[in-house]
Amino acid sequence: xxxxxxxxxxxxxxxxxxxxxxxxxxxxxxxxxxxxxxxxxxxxxxxxxxxxxxxxxxxxxxxxxxxxxxxxxxxxxxxxxxxxxxxxxxxxxxxxxxxxxxxxxxxxxxxxxxxxxxxxxxxxxxxxxxxxxxxxxxxxxxxxxxxxxxxxxxxxxxxxxxxxxxxxxxxxxxxxxxxxxxxxxxxxxxxxxxxxxxxxxxxxxxxxxxxxxxxxxxxxxxxxxxxxxxxxxxxxxxxxxxxxxxxxxxxxxxxxxxxxxxxxxxxxxxxxxxxxxxxxxxxxxxxxxxxxxxx
Length: 295
Prior knowledge:
Layout: E1 4-10, E2 15-22, H1 24-31, H2 37-54, E3 61-68, E4 75-81, E5 85-91, H3 103-106, E6 111-118, E7 124-129, H4 135-145, E8 151-157, E9 162-169, H5 178-192, H6 197-202, H7 205-213, E10 218-225, E11 227-228, H8 234-244, H9 246-255, E12 259-263, E13 270-274, H10 275-282
Parallel strand pairs: 5-11
Antiparallel strand pairs: 1-2, 1-10, 2-9, 3-4, 3-6, 4-5, 6-7, 8-9, 12-13
């Protein structure tokens, strides 16, 4: 299993953690577009972050991380389902991407939006400014400012692998004293701050945890697999055409020379609809492919 999250717990305190390792799914995302190295790294960090965030939630649905800016990278977007299926995309201006650029250089005046979209229940959305030195800092600030459980992130990617670690303070159970809880939290996060990109990208989870917390009682749980999967389908593309209305869909057909082609921005899959397909859609016949075609 090359792509997975793995949860861990500190037995003597109220803190949980999670590690994520992405190889194949990260490669699938990068294979769809020719991303420059700094953009590929940011996209990898965001894929790792979304995978970790899903593990903190108990829901059936989709988590979306989206960063927007006025700079060289106007858009980063990653989706991770509760089934741990990920996909992602970035938009960039190649001429403006400096190989040595930082997050603030690439995404000035940026914002990061976290959306939780359950299949049942109310949609939740939170926004934070991209003001930290890294995506990990921005996400940590989001949790600090949103009155949620204290949560810290460490995220690294190198164009081949994307790795991440999360620590999250749990409600008081083992430690009741507020000062003791804060001291313990600072102790564990300070140790985690010594973790380097080389260590997280190059070592297995057991070794990472031993190096950081060999004096702590840590339990590492079984890994949970992550996969790349795009949720686009011919049916969804057909539904988009139907939403235009018959007149606009037929006008689009004429403008397109007799065939409407819809491209998935995430995976580059193409869905073509000719005059017969369009007529069938508005005759109530549905699309010419199964509705659950995914890849």
